[in-house]
């Protein structure tokens, strides 16, 4: 039998300013409306399809801030603001930001939204009604089609299409609150039905091996150019894991069996921390398997099975994703018709089954569970519904959660030493090995040394807040973008790091006042 483990990873960077509770970036709220709850609701229509979802704690925390009213979102505030009261500055912001969604797959499917898009592109002046309609359509477009169809206020707004009133707009925005509120209960209910498994990542999404020691980058790529200052805090890697597991247990009532290490970044050094936290399995990229086994060529027979990591500290299972199949869904199939894409994927799976006929094999597809769907027609619903239908009907395969597979299929082979690397080319150069990325690590190391110097002192410093801010600064997202001229994430990193110095009562270093690439 061919077994298929589909794993969808849900993550957003930590946008909220801890000191002001403000955010200039609405992506947690908007992805919360478009990409999380619907993924569970779609698969519930196909009870024979079992999936695994990975939820990063910092994402859940930020969604809870929205539900509890603990975040000030500029996009949301300007959505609520009456169109007639918008200042010139407000109008410029809305015109520059309220078209931030895929033009061809989303904006173009609303005649009114498309009309406003071209009006903006042509530089024509917007009326008050235009701004009101834009406020509504930006929020509607970022709300999943499932809810636009089934939530009365949203359905009414879609059907009305234009000439909205302020009452119409408020009804849309208030409906969104309930969607965000239902996300985690929706996953809990699906777990209780035993159709899905939910797993966790380190709390603020750090690259664990680089927290352990930034020199680990050379294990994955010996040619890596490293920061001038070594960052080495294994205790932080352990804390990010332990706090994530505790956070998860508080929401779901049990310790997660599985963990998706941030960016599938692994190394031998972090395995004991994961074992000690009670995790039973992890997932990473196929490149790590072949490096660990000293294989220079891809070998599918080796790939399609789980492995043991037997160590003095305990026993951990590990699975390796099929990169090709994962990337087809994430980066290729949105250009195809749903039927062609599903036919192609099922064809690949059938070929694997035929190759290993008579053997039990596990194919793992592990991918981003949110960003891809904006590029698919109908937010990916047509593709996913057809895929789940075909998977339900396929006689040669069975979909499984990872944990249920491992209960019946124990790994037969132990990996004696796990190679270091991530899902990006099997190394860490997306987060280090670049002059600007390395500078960010040096700034982080300087701040972490400040924290080390005061952690045992008696003072009126809010040390819990200081540690939280430090862990946020260790997140992978800031380092990902350095070198790509992404000024938004540079500003976020410097904001978080500056706040850290404010929290501990130290002067903010002058170098944090300008972009790192300057």
Structure explained in plain terms:
By secondary structure, this protein is of the alpha/beta class. Helices cover 50% and strands 10% of the residues. The chain has 23 helices and 11 strands. It has helices spanning 27-43, 57-68, 74-80, 88-97, 111-121, 128-141, 145-150, 152-160, 166-192, 208-212, 217-220, 234-252, 271-276, 286-292, 300-303, 323-332, 338-355, 381-393, 402-408, 435-454, 463-473, 476-481, 487-503; strands spanning 2-10, 22-23, 51-55, 72-73, 196-200, 258-259, 281-285, 307-311, 314-321, 361-368, 397-399. The strands form 3 sheets. Strands 1, 3, 5, 10 and 11 form a 5-stranded parallel sheet that branches. The N and C termini lie far apart (56 Å).
State the main characteristics.
10% strand; 518 residues; 5-stranded parallel beta sheet; 23 helices; alpha/beta
Short description:
The chain is α/β, with parallel strands linked by helices.
Question: First CA to last CA: what distance?
Answer: 56 Å
Shape: globular
Q: Which parts are unreliable, with pLDDT below 50 for 5 consecutive residues or more?
A: none
Share in β-strands: 5-15%
Mean pLDDT: 97
Let me know the largest β-sheet: 5 strands, parallel
Tell me the helix content.
40-55%
The total of helices stands at 23
The gyration radius over C-alpha positions equals: 24 Å
Return the structural class: alpha/beta
Number of strands: 11
């Amino acid at each position: 039998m061919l077994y298929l483990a589909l794993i969808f990873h849900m993550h957003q960077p930590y946008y909220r300013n801890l000191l002001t509770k403000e955010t200039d970036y609405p992506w947690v709220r908007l992805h919360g409306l478009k990409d999380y709850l619907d993924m569970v609701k779609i698969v519930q229509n196909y009870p024979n399809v079992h999936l695994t979802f990975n939820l990063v704690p910092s994402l859940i925390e930020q969604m809870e801030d929205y539900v509890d009213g603990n975040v000030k979102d500029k996009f949301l505030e300007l959505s609520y603001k009456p169109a007639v009261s918008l200042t010139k500055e407000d109008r410029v912001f809305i015109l520059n930001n309220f078209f931030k969604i895929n033009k061809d797959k989303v904006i173009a499917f609303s005649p009114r939204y498309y009309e406003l898009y071209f009006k903006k592109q042509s530089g024509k002046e917007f009326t008050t009604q235009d701004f009101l309609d834009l406020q509504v359509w930006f929020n509607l477009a970022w709300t999943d089609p499932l809810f636009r169809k089934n939530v009365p206020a949203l359905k009414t707004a879609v059907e009305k299409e234009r000439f909205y009133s302020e009452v119409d707009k408020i009804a849309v925005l208030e409906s969104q609150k309930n969607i965000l509120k239902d996300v985690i209960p929706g996953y809990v209910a699906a777990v209780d039905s035993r159709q899905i498994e939910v797993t966790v990542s380190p709390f603020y999404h750090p690259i664990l091996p680089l927290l352990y020691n930034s020199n680990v980058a050379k294990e994955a790529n010996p040619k890596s150019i490293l920061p001038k200052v070594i960052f080495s805090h294994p205790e932080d890697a352990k804390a990010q894991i332990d706090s994530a597991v505790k956070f998860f247990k508080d929401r779901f009532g049990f310790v997660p069996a599985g963990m998706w290490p941030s960016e599938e970044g692994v190394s031998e050094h972090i395995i004991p921390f994961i074992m000690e936290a009670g995790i039973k399995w992890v997932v990473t990229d196929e490149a790590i398997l072949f490096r660990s086994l000293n294989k220079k060529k891809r070998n599918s027979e080796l790939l399609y099975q789980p492995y043991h990591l037997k160590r003095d500290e305990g026993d951990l299972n590990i699975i390796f994703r099929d990169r090709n199949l994962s990337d087809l869904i994430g980066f290729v199939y949105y250009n195809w018709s749903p039927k062609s894409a599903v036919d192609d994927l099922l064809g690949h799976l059938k070929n694997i089954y035929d190759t290993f006929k008579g053997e039990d094999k596990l194919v793992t597809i592990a991918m981003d569970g949110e960003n891809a769907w904006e590029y698919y027609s109908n937010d990916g619903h047509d593709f996913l519904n057809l895929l789940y239908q075909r998977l339900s009907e396929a006689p040669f395969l069975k979909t499984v959660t990872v944990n249920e597979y491992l209960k019946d299929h124990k790994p037969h082979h132990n990996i004696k030493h796990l190679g270091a690397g991530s899902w990006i080319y099997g190394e860490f150069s997306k987060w280090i090995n670049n002059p600007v990325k390395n500078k960010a690590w040096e700034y982080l190391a300087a701040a972490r040394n400040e924290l080390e110097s005061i952690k045992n002192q008696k003072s009126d410093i809010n040390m819990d807040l200081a540690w939280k801010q430090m862990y946020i600064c260790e997140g992978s997202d800031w380092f990902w973008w350095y070198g790509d001229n992404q000024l938004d994430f540079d500003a976020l990193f410097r904001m978080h790091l500056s706040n850290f110095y404010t929290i501990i009562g130290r002067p903010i270093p002058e170098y944090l006042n300008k972009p790192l690439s300057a």
